[in-house]
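for the writeup, i need someone to sanity check this before i put it in the appendix. the sequnce is what the collaborator sent (i think, or maybe the updated version? ugh). structure was predicted straight from it, no edits. if anything looks off just tell me and ill rerun, i have time this weekend
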Amino acid sequence: MFGILDKNTELTYRILLIICEIFGIISIILVSLFYAQGLYSNYYYDWNANPFSYHPVMMTTGLVFCFGNAILLYRTLKSTRKLIVKILHAGFLIISLTFALVGLVAIIRYKMSRSSIHFISFHSWLGLTTLILFFFQWIFGFVTFLFPKLSLKIRSAYMPTHRLWGRIIFVLAVVTVIAGLSEHGYGSSFFTTNDVEQKRRLIINFFGVFTALFGILVIYLVSTSDYQRPPDENVDK
């Protein structure tokens, strides 16, 4: 697929990483524009009057962009001490979870302000499942690899499972945010023949495209063995 650059795997990784980050940043910009005051007079950011406005941008920033970068850290920082990378990985995931929790509070506040029923859509079920899995994945990873740090035998046995579930949860997060904004669009007037909402409709569509591309590249980079961090010479037992 990337045969032209395959002779220099480090260069290939850096180029693809830059492209991946560009896709992720564009996704955040697009979802931020969705409620930009002045761009659309009827829609705006307001934590009290319109808490839902913070939900899409918080979830995209946390569960997609920060989470994706946390997964890639071990391959991006190959020459950095593994303990430092572990701490950064855990830190990025805390930041990711913090954004996601703000997004969760935003949608709960919105539902409560309208006396709406909570967690009745497929998107909400998928989102709640993703958050719960994310939390337990972080707890298990922290206990196993950082503190109190289990034995080398247990860490080695658990590592494939940890990597697999990290990818699964990330894919679930990408699907959830795309499905959520699409669901919101179909529940409103964004996808009707009324062209008043044409710009917002285009934002949703391009957001979906760039978010999906970001997710695909993250999974590709983390799944390609050529970009894997080389084994440490001295294993900390």
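Helices lie at 9-33, 55-76, 82-113, 122-145, 152-186, 198-223. Residues 122 and 179 are 9 Å apart (CA to CA).
thx in advance!!
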